Amino acid sequence: MAQFNPDKPTLYSSRICLFAQRAVIALTEAGIDYEDVFVDIYDKPDWYSQISPQGLVPTVRLPGGKALTESQFIVYYAADINEKLYPKTPVERYDTRQLMDYIDKKMLPNYSKIMVGPVEEVVAVREDMQIRIRELNEKLLEINPDGVYIHGDSLTIADIYLLPLIQRYYIGVRKHGLPALDETGLERFVKWKKTLFELPSFKKSFDSEDVIWTALSSHK
Hints:
- Helices cover 54% and strands 6% of the residues.
- The protein is built from 10 helices and 4 strands, in the order βαβαββαααααααα.
- It has helices at 18-29, 48-51, 71-81, 90-107, 109-116, 122-143, 157-175, 187-197, 200-204, 209-217; strands at 10-13, 35-38, 59-61, 67-69.
- Helix 1 runs antiparallel to helix 7 (157-175).
- The model has no long low-confidence stretch (mean pLDDT 94).
- Pfam families: GST_C (PF00043), GST_N_2 (PF13409).
């Protein structure tokens, strides 16, 4: 029988999935009271097809029965509930959409490669990741050179979308024993990373980096 709370949103997530982390952070930062149900992404229970016929994680089941899927849209849903998560101006929202597109097209492909890709490819992947964080630093300087978060002093959907992916970059490099990513001259990015890595909702979204690495690397 499918597990859900009939009185509040139920989030079906995983402690090792970066997409699920986005959902946890977004719902938490929006102040949404929700029920947690953890799903083994490698061995989903039979009842989960009643919640998400496609087997997607994360999924949010609303009390009325509607299922919300895809981390990007769940993040938008959370921001629609609490608009503090949206950038304040039309220009900032434009910058956010462009940045999220860059993350999906240029940064996300490195995720699976550094975590579960062939060992012989990880050195080249690390070099591309170095390029991406330098480009990211430039983008952050263009959007808001002095802020802590991407858009200044307030956490937005842009931060939530990027944060778990950056965590995977650093896990992969460290666990493969590769040279650390060079942060020289990347002060804007480093300030952002240090601040966001201490965010309580981020820490809530996973058990430990060792658990993430062990689970993902064992399913290559």
